[in-house]
Write a structure and sequence with these properties.
165 residues, mainly alpha, DNA Binding (I), subunit A, 2 domains, two-stranded antiparallel sheet, 42% helix, 6% strand, elongated, disordered N terminus, disordered C terminus
Length: 165
């Protein structure tokens, strides 16, 4: 279910896992209600009508399925501080970055693969990644003259017509 986007247009990204939320997530919530246990940590529930024992468990569960929840959780976890330069900034000046990049197989919403970076550090990390990928593409194009060196080739080792999701 990939969408193509014209050059220069913003790329569509799968920010929310609706199938998971309404599929496995719904089943987990149903089971938690039946057992009167928290859906995340399995502690006994104290509030009627909720499947979470605390706000932390609710945020953790929502972060599995929703990008905005994962982003908010990571910003709070990191204390609104850039993990590279250490500066504490307002939320609007911070970005949540994948430690292991998506093009290298990093998990989308896993908090252990997310970090808070200021815009300057995020831009620097992105430049480093593009430089590293560019070197690999250059070496590959020398091996196979005439081969278009797109990101799919860098990651998967063969020409790709796939678009960013």
């Amino acid at each position: 279910m990939s969408q193509s986007s014209p050059i220069g247009a913003p790329r569509a990204r799968p920010l929310n896992d609706r199938e998971g939320w309404f599929g496995s997530g719904r089943e987990l919530r149903r089971k938690a209600r039946q057992e009167h246990r928290c859906v995340v940590c399995a502690r006994p529930l104290v509030r009627v009508g909720s499947v979470y024992c605390s706000r932390g468990c609710q945020e953790s569960f929502h972060a599995r399925y929703f990008w905005d929840a994962a982003r908010a959780r990571v910003l709070r976890r990191d204390g609104f501080r850039c993990r590279r330069c250490g500066r504490r900034l307002p939320r609007r000046h911070l970005e949540v970055d994948h430690i292991v990049e998506r093009v290298r197989g990093g998990a989308l919403r896993d908090p252990s693969n997310l970090q808070t970076l200021c815009r300057r550090c995020h831009a620097g990390k992105t430049r480093e990644l593009l430089h590293a990928l560019g070197e690999r593409a250059h070496r590959r194009s020398e091996e196979y003259p005439g081969l278009d060196s797109g990101i799919g080739e860098i990651v998967f080792g063969e020409p790709s017509t796939a678009t960013w999701d």
